[in-house]
Amino acid sequence: MERGVGTDSIKNLEFTNQLFNFCYTKDLSRDQLKKEFALLGISYYAFSSNNRTSFVFEGPESSIQKALPIIKELVYNPKVDQSALKTIVDGMKTNRSAETKNPDGMGKTLLYYAMKGKYSEYLSRITEKGLDTVKAERILESIKKTENYATTYHFVGNINQNELITMLSNSFSADKSRNKVPYLDELNQPISKNKILVVNDKKAVQSQIYFLMNTPNFSGEPKDEVYAEAFNSYMSDGFSGILMQEIREYRSLAYATGGSFISPIEKNKPGFFYSYVGCQVDKSNDAISVMDSILDNLPKKPERLQMIKAGLINSLSASYPNFRNISAAISSGREMGHTESPRLKKYEIYKNLTFDNITSFYEQNILNRPIVITIYGNMKKIDQKKLSKFGEVQKLKVNDIRVD
Question: pTM of the predicted model, to two decimals?
Answer without folding.
Answer: 0.92
